[in-house]
Specification:
mainly beta; six-stranded mixed β-sheet; 9 helices; globular; binds MU-OXO-diiron; binds calcium ion
Length: 592
Amino acid sequence: PVPERGGPSTLTFPELRQQLSQHHAVAEGYEAQTVIRWGDPVLDGAPPYDPMAQTAAGQARQFGYNCDYLDFWPLPAGSRNSDHGLLCVNHEYTNTNLMFAGIGEGRAARGRTTAAQAAVEIEAHGMSVVEVKREGGTWRSVPGGAMNRRITMNTPMRISGPAAGHARLRTNADATGTRVLGTLNNCAGGNTPWGTVITAEENFNNYFGGAAATTGAEAATYRRYGIIAEPSYAWFRHFERFNLDREPNEPNRFGWVVEYDPYDPTSVPVKRTALGRFKHEGATHAIGSDGRVAFYMGDDERFEYLYKFVTARPFNPNDRAANRDLMDEGTLYVAKFEERGRMRWLALTHGEGPLNAANGFHSQADVVIEARRAADLLGATPMDRPEDVETNKVNGRVYVMLTNNSRRTAQQAGPGNPRANNVHGHVLEVIPPGAGTGRVDHAATEARWEVFIAAGKPGVDPGTQYHRATSDQGWLSCPDNIAFDSKGRAWIATDGAPEFAGIADGIWAADTSGHGRGLTRCFYQAPTGAEVCGPCFTPDDRTLFLAIQHPGEDTGSTYENPSTRWPDFEAGRPPRPSVIAIVKRDGGEIGS
Ligand code: FEO
Ligand code: CA
Ligand code: CA
Ligand code: CA
């Protein structure tokens, strides 16, 4: 039986019963509103979504595909307005098989795109900045809003930091190695204390191909990042910049953290190379007690690492311009987990330890371009796929979502990743010195760690860890994203639960302190095939935005016969990745 209330939990919503459905579901007393869908107009002149006639020019002005990270910036800027703002949205990748008629099923569909279809996909990547408004209790987007923006794979960007201008970043189109078009596979993200958005380039390897993958001068680095001759996307067959045989350095210009100003649609986004190059999932900031800013970041692949970057200079709250290039100077660290709940942050600094010319590192540029190999040499701890990392401002702890790793053997189980065959993943807490005191030392090179929850079904899956009052609906699988409300309670989004646990992906909420700590409760369930991304609260905690990514991504699902037509449920329309807003029917705070 599902308890009506959460026992010792402070969360009062009635829990959902776990089920799989073409429709989504939210706890009783709450309402889910569709705010914007793939193909909806963002910029003036955008054509309406037409399932049979998407064009690259149209897509460049419409909402992109597979929404992931979400960030809400109030309007006017600097206010805490929770009914009107800009929603910043990542568009991670495309489900080609659900975008175009007659292209077949699964990933193989990507390889069959024409140049015109690939051009649509290119414009469907990147980000959207879109004005949103709550009127009469209902959220809607404002097409053509004055600050609306599309950032795509064709948007000019600047490269800064230690790798800027390096020979390994130069191409035929950019002899300076400092200018690049676009951003790829932007998964989770974060923001800065000076009011910019940061977005993480994750699986950039999928887009580059050609024989040089195995024969070129960069072949060893390609291999470390998963770049192969025949990737799933066909872009490299249609456009030279994705062809390694023509542009061997183009992939070195991806895999970075990108910063942009949400309030200035004319600003040039910047790739901040000091934060290292890997399959960036997200980046969360935390202001340390000495004013320096730490950015915690995951590299999402089995046995990859957890990183943090600490700025050299402190954040200046009184002078926004003084912070503009704070992310260009500082120290990149990688995590090493140890016994008895201890951990250390190891500096990835050129000239220190093995990071020298004898090992192929001739400058800090080489260290950041090959951050993974540098971390290998330092003996960093291989993790169970570090997805989103988020700071809980209430308790000063940093939460790491380790989504799963079925390949970890019993011999490989150890500090930070204690479970072999970790099919369901876990959530780790990194506890910097001073956490809970209000003077947290995020720049420190030592910290402690604890497992917050270990996912899976209690009593069935070995090694699960929850509050003992967790209901038989309250367990979860494959934690991926997390957000905290202003009370410091965790809202966990999952990706992979249908495949690994036979339950829908969704949102589970839990206290992080007190008698209800670790008592997860099921709040929202996604439609068939979708994961839940980007959980994001308005400043007043009365709206929770969610990105519902890849609805209909199931085996056998096609444009003609998708496993769901969410959210439109109209004949002839495929499913559409969409941002939804969850509000409480009585207007109260979410989870109150
Ligand atoms: Fe794009 Fe690691 O999820
Ligand atoms: Ca995703
Ligand atoms: Ca993710
Ligand atoms: Ca994931």
